[in-house]
Amino acid sequence: MLDLIQLADRVAAGEIKALSIKQPYPHHIFHDGKDVENRDWPTRGRGWFIVHAGVSKSEINKDDDAQMAMPRGGVVGMARIVDCVTEMESRWFFGRYGFVLRDAFPLPLIPCRGQLMFFNLEPETCRAVAAAIRTTSIPGGAL
After folding, report:
1. What is the 3-state secondary structure (H, E, C) of the chain?
2. Which end of the chain is more exposed for a tag (fewer CB within 10 A), N or C?
3. Among candidates 98, 116, 109, which has minimal Cα distance to 35?
4. Taking Cα atoms as reference points, which of 26, 41, 15, 40 lies closest to residue 101?
């Protein structure tokens, strides 16, 4: 099992890629038990990734002040992909492919630009994410 310090070290070294996800879905991953990220493309990748909240408001209910206030335009947390499926018994699955998620945890917003598909963050952003991981509090301290 990977502990937070080891995870932070891997992030600081630029070893972990990011994936941009439109709000409110990152919020649902961290706070509502969303256990799958739906995509039109599959991945063979497994393991940790950095969750980037895109700036788009296309998925947001613009009449919902809480959704409008959700952080976007930067890193907002991390999660682990454990599988890629084409069907799943989850209320959150509705895509062609689903990246099955585990061990998700939020981080304070760290502004940066997103990209399509999995992408590498700039070194200074990796260092900021690593610092946030080192100061985060997750029950048990290990993932």
Report:
1. CCEHHHHHHHHHCCCCCEEEECCCHHHHHHHCCCCEEEECCCCCCCEEEEEEECCCCCCCCCCCHHHHCCCCCEEEEEEEEEEEECCCCCCCCCCCEEEEEEEEEEEEEEECCCCCCEECCCHHHHHHHHHHHHHCCCCCCEC
2. N
3. 98
4. 26
Enumerate the domain spans of the chain: 4-135
**Angle subtended at Cα 41 by Cα 54 and Cα 35, rounded to the nearest 5 degrees:** 65
Side-chain-side CA neighbours of 80 within 13 Å: the count stands at: 8
CATH topology classification for 4-135: 2.30.130
Q: Report how far residue 33's alpha carbon sits from residue 18's, in angstroms, rounded to the nearest whole number.
A: 20
**Buried/exposed 21-49: b ≥16 CB within 10 Å, e otherwise:** bbbbbbbebbeeebbbbbbeeebeeeebb
Structure token pair of residue 128: 């900021």
**What is the maximum span of the chain, computed from C-alpha positions, in angstroms?**
42
What does the pLDDT average to over 118-131? Answer: 98
